[in-house]
Design a protein that fits this description.
Strands 5-6-4-1-7-8 form a six-stranded parallel β-sheet, sandwiched between helices. The protein has a six-stranded parallel β-sheet with strand order 11-10-9-15-16-17, sandwiched between helices. It has 15 helices and 17 strands. The longest helix is centred in the N-terminal third of the chain and has 15 residues.
């Protein structure tokens, strides 16, 4: 069954609580990347055009509630005030009010005095210790402020928090446009892919991706593994990995994956190695089975690039999560760059990047507009690819 979207709600004159993802990077109180705010604008603008009163809620960073001094520091560092300022700049014809509390009379009065087409941004939901525990009283209280709930924070829908699940337990609910788009693109790619379907998984840790690899081996035609994860697979194959990133406790798991996968699994056959983890480290290319004991792998080599391009040949659906190497260092970004480029050159393929570092790499390397969909939620997209239920989506009402 399909979930309701904001189009299915009668929003005129209603107070719509919208859970957005305004967890933006801040440096000295200044936003360094406003993409997440921009991502929420289609839903916000739809509600404005349809005369809703909009109450925006989001977390920002982490707040430690176990130590009073640390709590105060975290709250000061993760205050939503700069977000409210940026939102007001992006919506110059709309009244945007920042309410510097998460409950109480000040918030209730602000909501009571709203006019249609106005916005309130509530202070960081994580100022409340009950947020991450999905405290039922907190969810009920926040729900009492509104008439409707819209889930539009894809980066948080894998968490059962008071603001993502608790509010929706008490109000008519729907997905916003951002979450609707994520569900469509990732869902289509994973659950009804046009074939051949190739999955590419990189990044540092097998432990982060092992369930995704397992699930995708049941679905995809090929699963390409690169990045730091590859060295745990090399170890499972009996290779020397030198000082490369290695999860010793995942070697047996990697062995099982290799046995299960057969020729579906494509691993790098050469690697770029260096003696130290540094942007200017002297480096060379060696075969995967010949990594020197005093060196570490930092990128896939040219033969692996060619192998991966062959595996991608003719693909109609590609899902990619995780870079092929240390793309932050120019000397070790080539594998990620080449694979990203190869994906963008596939004619008519549905290409989806599952958030996190691979999304950052694609944007940084200039491929943002050549990918069908770049996810806004690394953790959520990974859990979606694992086949898990996402609580912040499961709670939303089904269409009749």
């Amino acid at each position: 069954m399909a979930k309701k979207t904001v189009r299915d709600l009668d929003v005129a004159g209603k107070k719509a609580i919208v859970r957005v993802d305004f967890n933006v990077p801040l440096k000295d109180g200044v936003i360094t990347d406003d993409n997440r705010i921009l991502g929420a604008l289609p839903t916000i603008n739809y509600l404005l055009e349809n005369n809703a009163k909009i109450i925006l809620m989001s977390h920002l960073g982490k707040v430690n509630h176990k130590d009073e001094a640390q709590t105060a520091k975290d709250k000061a560092k993760n205050n939503m005030a700069p977000v409210a300022k940026r939102l007001a700049e992006l919506l110059p014809n709309t009244k945007v009010t920042f309410v510097d509390v998460t409950r109480g009379k000040v918030l209730e009065d602000a909501v009571a005095n709203m006019e249609n087409g106005e916005i309130i941004l509530v202070q960081n939901t994580r100022y409340e210790s009950g947020e991450s525990k999905n405290d039922p009283g907190l969810g009920k209280y926040w729900a009492s402020l509104g008439d409707l709930f819209v889930s539009d924070a894809f980066g948080s829908v894998h968490r059962a928090h008071a603001s993502t699940v608790g509010i929706a337990e008490h109000l008519p609910s729907a997905l916003g446009f951002l979450v609707e788009k994520e569900v469509k693109f990732i869902g289509d790619a994973i659950y009804s892919p046009k074939r051949p379907f190739v999955a590419i998984l990189g990044g540092a840790k097998v432990s982060d991706k092992i369930n995704v690899i397992d699930n995708l081996l049941n679905i995809a035609d090929k699963v390409i593994v690169g990045g730091g994860m590859a060295y745990t697979f090399y170890k499972a194959m009996g290779y020397e990995v030198g000082t490369s990133l290695l999860e010793e406790d995942r070697v047996e798991v990697a062995k099982r994956v290799i046995e299960k996968a057969g020729d579906k699994l494509v691993l790098p056959i050469d690697t770029v190695v260096a003696k130290e983890f540094a942007p200017d480290a002297a480096h060379e290319v060696v075969k995967a089975s010949e990594i020197p004991s005093d060196m570490m792998g930092l990128d896939i080599g040219p033969e692996s690039v060619a192998l991966f391009k062959d595996a991608l040949e003719g693909a109609q659906t590609v899902v990619w999560n995780g870079p092929m190497g240390v793309f932050e260092f120019e000397a070790f970004a080539k594998g990620t760059l080449e694979i990203c480029k190869a994906i963008t050159e596939l004619p008519d393929a549905l290409t989806v990047i599952g958030g996190g570092d691979s999304a950052a790499a694609a944007i940084q390397l200039g491929f943002k507009d050549k990918i069908t969909h770049i996810s806004t939620g690394g953790g959520a997209s990974l859990e979606f690819m694992e086949g898990k239920d996402l609580p912040g989506i499961s709670i939303i009402e089904e269409k009749a």
